[in-house]
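To: structure desk
From: M.T.
Subject: fold request, one chain
Message: Could you run this one when you get a chance? Sequence is below, nothing fancy, just the single chain.
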Amino acid sequence: MGFAALDPSYDWGIITGLAAEAPIARHLGVTRTAGATPAGSVSASKRLIIDGARALLSFGLAGGLDPALRSGMLVIPRKVLAAGEQFTPDPAMIDVLGGPTIELALGGTEIVPDADAKRCLWEQTDASAVDLESGAVARVAREHGLPFAVLRAVCDPAERNLPPAALLALDRRGSIRLLTMLASVAAKPSQIPELMALARDAAAARRALIRRVAEIRQRLAGM
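Reply: Done. Structure tokens follow.
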């Protein structure tokens, strides 16, 4: 099935890790939030297929592994690496998204918490960025014979250490657990500067996604 034959406004199933990403992605198709876990991504992808999706898009934020990637830079990979396997996103979907920006993205299984861990992953895999949804989305797409692609933006660049509050922040629906975050900050106020830096990075990533979604909608309108 070629992507060019699809009607994206009807056929795209979009998987986001965070609830806050869904309103941005909704302009491109039907969305489901995976709760920032691979297992949630599998479930969300399969539900979208049941609902009629004929192409899957992994959408949202990513962590930078390549030090050259700065916050807000878009991640559109030619390949996705997950559990030792490489998956190939659909070239036509990549074109609609604006063309590839990196060669390889990593579908991770857990949050990468600090700069040392990111550097190790970059050296071991050659992947430029990592997220928790794309590997699962790629695998489900292959199992069902569907095209897929990835559109993400760097939230935490390679040198960024994630503060403890950020690691505790999300619930299983991909929403922020505010009280949990506040308790963590109260216990360790020294993480506030790191949280503020992460918030700035996340805002830059969201702005980049909003701009690219607007460009994609214009591109699709002309197809």
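Reply (cont.): Strands lie at 12-16, 30-33, 55-64, 74-75, 77-82, 85-87, 102-107, 129-131, 148-156. Let me know if you need anything else for the meeting.
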